[in-house]
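Forwarding the complex inputs:
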Amino acid sequence: MTSDDTPMRPSGKHLRTAVADDLRRAIETGELPPGATLPTEPVLMQRYGVSRNTVRNALGDLENAGLIEVRQGRGRQVRRREPVWIYASRSESRARRRPSGVDSWVDDMRSQGRVPRTDIEVAVLHAPVDVSERLNLDNGATVAVRRRIRFADDQPWNMNDSYYPMWLAQEVPAILDPADVTTGLTVHLADRGYAQVYYNDELTARMPTPDEAKALNIGPGVPVMCHMRTGVTKGGKPIRVTVTVMPGDRHRLLYEVPA
Amino acid sequence: MTSDDTPMRPSGKHLRTAVADDLRRAIETGELPPGATLPTEPVLMQRYGVSRNTVRNALGDLENAGLIEVRQGRGRQVRRREPVWIYASRSESRARRRPSGVDSWVDDMRSQGRVPRTDIEVAVLHAPVDVSERLNLDNGATVAVRRRIRFADDQPWNMNDSYYPMWLAQEVPAILDPADVTTGLTVHLADRGYAQVYYNDELTARMPTPDEAKALNIGPGVPVMCHMRTGVTKGGKPIRVTVTVMPGDRHRLLYEVPA
DNA sequence: TAGTGGTCTAGACCACACT
DNA sequence: GTGTGGTCTAGACCACTAG
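Prediction (whole assembly, four chains):
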């Protein structure tokens, strides 16, 4: 028994890596195009001469790399990608043409030939620490939140939660009115003297929590982009924090910024 | 034998899920704070009354969720997070104070008390399709590329590749000069009549390729943010595409945009 | 040397999907 | 029903880290 007597071991690599790499190559070269069904576990066991656990470990690596998706009883398929564009910041000329009273999700989706929908609910709760920091509130202060789940073609697409300090919700009762009037609400705030003059946007990428994965139907190996937007008034006072959680394989965020 | 005779099975869930959820709870409540070492595999087998494979599957789920990291022979630890801020777009007043000749990476890192370094190399190659599309070039056209690996405190932190059309590299030879003069190069281009007046930024999140994971020392369960910036001249001509690949757990990207 | 995690095997049984 | 993937067990051996 030499140290390299097993079949299909290209170069000192482990069996699971060898199997995963061979399948990865097939996917990247288009030999297994998007949507194609992969060979079944027994076939792969035979082809590479390894045990079922090893095949499953290799396939698990590809799944966690976001390359394939699996449905019990139906096999594994090369993942399709069809991201949607989200405009986070447009040039002046284009931004101004947006009709008030319709939110940007509706705009963005319609322009891409998709059918938008938004489910919204409102609540009052203790602010998460991320939010209270950005709103200059004490830890544990209460805030009003408008939670949205946004759909495209009836599929849950992202989550978008807007937090307002409680004093503002009392001054502008529309905040706690569960009607889908995002841009309208912004105009409403401006009329009351709380116009947002700029936004501070923060972007991170991470893996979804189990709750997020369930609510947005996110499979293994798909991260989320997390977008936190703080709206600031002329006086420098933060009045809103909006947290958007977007599955990475379904979104492309766009900014148009001056050089 | 009933269907639920195993210990520690809270609610119809699978064993691996029960184990993973219990450990996840401990991490989220701070019972296992960042940096803490998890119990060993034999201990967990005993505690939950499951086999080693099941313990390993549960721990693997936590690893792929980005919650823990593992080093052979040393055990598993709750992952620490210490992201760095990257300013993608600042307000006018702050942007203008930046000294020319020093790139933004150096600026951003020094202001956060870290020691920046940039390794750079230049090359001429066929443009990836993503790049040729954005530069309005034919598929397979050659481009000049400045590849950077950026370090913080001597750790590889992100990759930053700038692509220029070949005609521009011939007109502005500094593009193919491997010296770390990012902002200087921008000024240089402006002097030759190729000032960039705005950027189109596109952001996505995905899992790293094996190459990226190796080069940037990215562990399992950590996604990357991919930032593609297209620089456009006054005449609307794209002259540069910069692709930045940032491990999600080490970066926080900031934009300051007008409302 | 002892203890950790890493890989691999073999086999049993369960859950789901198609036909 | 047949075939797919999902879970779980038991055991062997290897590779790395620490004392």
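DSSP finds nine helices and ten strands in chain B.
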